[in-house]
Specification:
This protein is mainly beta and 199 residues long. Helix content is 10%, strand content 32%. Strands 1, 2, 5, 6, 9, 10 and 11 form a 7-stranded mixed beta sheet that branches. The chain has a 5-stranded mixed beta sheet with strand order 4-3-12-7-8.
Length: 199
């Protein structure tokens, strides 16, 4: 039965499949803890730390230019899904409204429900990264991080935090939830960076 949804790639699809990954046509749901259920109009993304404090409401985020992007995603649990399409606000678009303070080098992503994950600013501000509210042309389902999640397609998908609620800018790197529990601090799938590098 599983073979209907998962298959080993015959090749790396022209370099698109990282080492150790299996293609899937499904979108597996992997979440630690209860699934937060937030009404869209109640979504807020708070900014603090080494940045001018402010809060972006759902209305603020939808009033920004919206972008639709298609790319591959890769989960640390060994599945990859190709040609996924997302719509939302690009991180550079959001960051054009954020005033960073000197010394900011990293950001801790916070989610409703208490989840956190860390990113360097270099990884965070890439133009393909989205605060996404639509997947495949439809509102993002709660189980997949709706109403809004971060999507960081160049790293393993645990870095694409579901139910995003805050951005804490920092002058150093710190582990988030899964990083404190043995996962790699960066998580590049093409370097097979699944597990701890010493933290």
């Amino acid at each position: 039965m599983l073979g209907k949804f998962f298959r080993k790639p015959e090749d790396d699809q022209g370099g698109r499949i990282p080492p150790g990954q299996t293609l899937t046509t499904r979108f597996p749901v992997l979440t630690y803890g209860p699934t937060p259920r937030i009404e869209p109009q109640n979504v807020e993304v708070r900014v603090w730390g080494l940045a001018e404090e402010q809060t972006f409401t759902w209305a603020d985020l939808l009033a920004m230019p919206q972008t639709t992007l298609t790319y591959d995603i890769h989960c640390v649990t060994h599945w990859s899904k190709l040609d996924t399409t997302w719509t939302g606000v690009t991180v550079p678009e959001l960051m054009s409204r954020v005033q960073l303070r000197p010394g900011a080098t990293h950001v801790m992503i916070h989610s409703y429900g208490g989840y956190t994950t860390n990113l360097s600013l270099e990884d965070f501000v890439r133009p393909l990264n989205l605060l996404a509210h639509d997947f495949g042309g439809a509102p993002l389902e709660t189980e997949h991080g709706g109403p809004m999640r971060l999507v960081v397609p160049h790293l393993y998908f645990w870095k694409s935090a579901k139910w995003i609620s805050g951005l804490e800018f920092m002058d150093h790197d710190m582990p988030g939830f899964w990083e404190r529990n043995g996962y790699h601090m960066r998580g590049d799938p093409f370097k097979d960076e699944r597990y701890s590098d010493g933290y």
